[in-house]
Design a protein that fits this description.
By secondary structure, the protein is an alpha/beta fold. The chain contains eight helices and 18 strands. Bound molecules: guanosine-5'-monophosphate.
Amino acid sequence: MTSTQRTGKLFVMVGPAGAGKNSLMKDMIARIPGLRQLPTATTRPMRDTEQQGREHVFVTHEEFLRLIDQDALLEHQVVHGRLYGILRQTLEDALDAGELLIADIEIFGAQIVQRSYPDNVCMIFVQPPSIGDLVQRMEARGDSLVERTKRLLRVPMELAYANECDYAILNDDLQKTADTLFNVITAEAQGKRAIGMERIRYDYTYLAQVVPFYHHEVLLPLSGDALGLTFDSSASPAETALTALEQRLGVRASQADLIGGGVDGSFLAPYRFEYESEGAHETLRYIYLYRMEERAEFEGFQWMPARWEVPNGEPA
Ligand code: 5GP
């Protein structure tokens, strides 16, 4: 079947983790007759609330590799350490049958499906009111420090993607946003364009910091400026902290020498993560500890009693 004969539509919800995509998707499925979730293949275990083939087609790692070999997947990505992929036949059959589908797909996969079925895919970007809002939602749902700090690094890249989408809607109030989304989906399902582009401008800084310590004391700059550097969120915060250590103190160290708050692959989570906002400006601080070999003096710095505990329970 050619794309002109295909009458179905896939609504792809994109946006950073914690923007509320999943709740909105569930709400739309409950409210719009005929709308169902596109089940994508995944190797993650099924949750109690889920059904095989409804949210996902749950497969083993070997089965997933076989799907790749058979070219059954339109795309696939690793998301939070698990494999996910769009089953080409499942999607095409539903589009050919004129079905309305909705899915929450991460950005790289979303771009592929958008390019592959331009006439049948509607991209809806869900924007958080601020990055702080994402931080709060991730904390509230109990995401670990490693998960939160790793996902937050993707946020600028994800926010920039709003421009590539058909719609961008602000999720500042779940009920209001759900109503906007309802209008978008019902209009698009009838081949009409809905209005509703709400562009947000975000103003933020990512800062990687390191706090050297020796026994019970920490080395702090006298000026009050943190020992750290701003970084582009596509860079590694731990590497940036090490660069700051070398530039300001002349201390060369490697990532293994830093004390963080857990690892995920090559990502070292910060020992502490702090979020601050001043007016509209948001600052995300990734703070690492570094154990000094001796209590050396450095110009412009002073040793102060530590306020934090180090992971082995011994005060810094
Ligand atoms: P969950 O495990 O919560 O159902 O999905 C986790 C995340 O995986 C979703 O938020 C979405 O971003 C991503 N995801 C789900 N299915 C697919 C898929 O088929 N392809 C890609 N690239 N990402 C997916």
